[in-house]
């Protein structure tokens, strides 16, 4: 069945290292969201793409985070250099068109631990 | 901007009883209100949603009500079962994105 696939599921890295998280949206979906989830802040929107174009990345720390969609089947979120405060679960979600016209389907998440 | 408040943060109910989770929003432009369920180790999953032109929507044991005047909406789960144990999130959408509540941890006691 159709699902959003995220890799890796878990990542432990040392402070200062580059981290790349990948997301394969559901085939045919044209919107992609990156969220970060922590106990303290809940679900935070980091970036939003529609038709592969970044429409909103205001929630993302620009100095170390970057998000791209090299093609319609792949979205990436990079952190360079990583810091302990980046430890969180990162979710990718995909959908069709404007959010109020259909649900956002979430992946299983990438649990990132920066030590 | 939009702000969504969700209560309670934790709710414990006896199996078979009903559970109610409430959310309030601030932006009258919000017109879409989904509810997501998140099980341990998984991503949130949509369980029900409602649009601003509807006051109530029901799907088996789950129902959502919306009061646009008061800017609040609620999730009702009847005849709760052990598999209902999870964290539930409400959200409001004034535009292309979802503004999330902080979540409610629902515990079903046997």
CA distance, first residue to last residue of chain B:
41 Å
On the 0 to 100 scale, the average pLDDT of chain A is 92
**Total helical elements of chain A:** 0
Low-confidence stretches of chain A: none
How many E-type strands of chain B?
Answer: 11
The helical percent of chain B reads under 10%
Count of DSSP-assigned helices of chain B: 0
Task: From the alpha carbons, calculate the radius of gyration of chain B and give it in angstroms.
Answer: 13 Å
Name the assembly state. Answer: heterodimer
User: Whole-number radius of gyration of chain A?
Assistant: 13 Å
Label the overall shape of chain B: globular
**Structural class from helices and strands of chain A?**
mainly beta
Biggest interface, chains and residues, is: A-B, 22 and 21 residues
Total strand count of chain A, please? 11
Protein structure class of chain B = mainly beta
Overall morphology of chain A: globular
| Percentage of residues assigned to helices of chain A | under 10%
Mean pLDDT score of chain B: 94
Distance between the termini of chain A: 36 Å
Q: What does the model show?
A:
The complex is a heterodimer of chains A (115) and B (110). Chain A is mostly beta strands and 115 residues long. Chain A has no helices and eleven strands. In chain A, the strands form two sheets. In chain A, strands 2, 4, 5, 6, 9, 10 and 11 form a seven-stranded mixed beta sheet that branches. A four-stranded antiparallel beta sheet of chain A has the order 1-3-8-7, with no helix packed on it. With 110 residues, chain B is mainly beta. In chain B, a hairpin with a 4-residue loop joins strand 7 (62-67) and strand 8 (72-77). Chain B starts with a strand and ends with a strand. The model of chain B has no long low-confidence stretch (mean pLDDT 94). Classes of the chains: A mainly beta (115), B mainly beta (110). Chain A binds chain B through residues 4, 31, 33, 42-43, 45, 48, 50, 55-56, 91, 93, 98-100, 103-109, and chain B through 31-32, 34, 36, 41-46, 49, 51, 89, 93, 96-98, 100-103.
